Please model this.
Amino acid sequence: MFKIEKIFDEAKKRQRTIVFPEVSFSARTVEAVKILRKNKICKVLLVGDASALSLRDKALEKFEIVSPVTFPDRKKLVKTLYEKRKEKGMTMEQAEELEKDPYYFATLLVECGYADGMVAGAESSTATTIRPALQIIKGKNKKEPVSSFFLLYGKNNFLKNKALILADCGVNEFPDADTLCSIACQSVESALMFDIEPKVAFLSYSSKGSARGEAVDKVKTAYEKFSKKEKFVTCDGELQFDAAMVKNVAAQKAPDSPLDGDANVLIFPNIEAGNIAYKAMQYVGGLNAAGPILQGLRKPVNDLSRGCTVQDIVVVAAITALQAKEIKED
Model:
């Protein structure tokens, strides 16, 4: 049985510092950081002007607030940004200007160790949030992609008390078979972080050869590569959604599948399918959707849907704290 409270409890034990660059212009983020602080889920670092934030909400006077312009070690951040981007043509003057951007500033705080992770995206596109992370923090492994997943959880007649990992719904637009395999490997690690026993389904519009085409072949190849690489993980593919998730349908369409209609890590063939699916499950299925949570970065930076709730921000912050724990202990 999945309980979101377990994520909060684990985050509380770790007390990581999470930076929020949108508090100056996001009412939802303001409410979320109050909850995080009150419940001691993580330490909170806010980006903005302290006087302006105090006028916005007196409660913010109790928070640690940092500004890109007055930050004591600003020169260190600017130099770090310059060193990371000089090969791409960035000048020191451009680095000094870009450091003032709240998203770049917050990402630099993570990279330089002033914060353990960052959460943003309530008021911006995914590209705005993750571009600085891809440029500054970068991936753990140059050969592996940075990808994303959504954590879907909540009670409805179908899901009951189970949680799902959906990937990739936010970063890789047209992943090839090798990339899909890597995304699945990363998603297994993420599932284990939540104490979810991974059961991986590579999704398609075809179940076990019921249709043919390049798209089907790609998913089938990804599954075959993954099954050889992760020999102890229950998995199957290619499968339609119902063959992966519904026991009686699985008995008809994929009777020999080890998943038996009980998949909980769903690997989508492309970002379009994944993004549509998670939003449908969230709004029509009545589930909670936390993410997109990035996988494969050296340090955690996580995005939010612009339709996120205050609770979503709280959950993503707690997940970010867990990721920071995993990275520090690796």
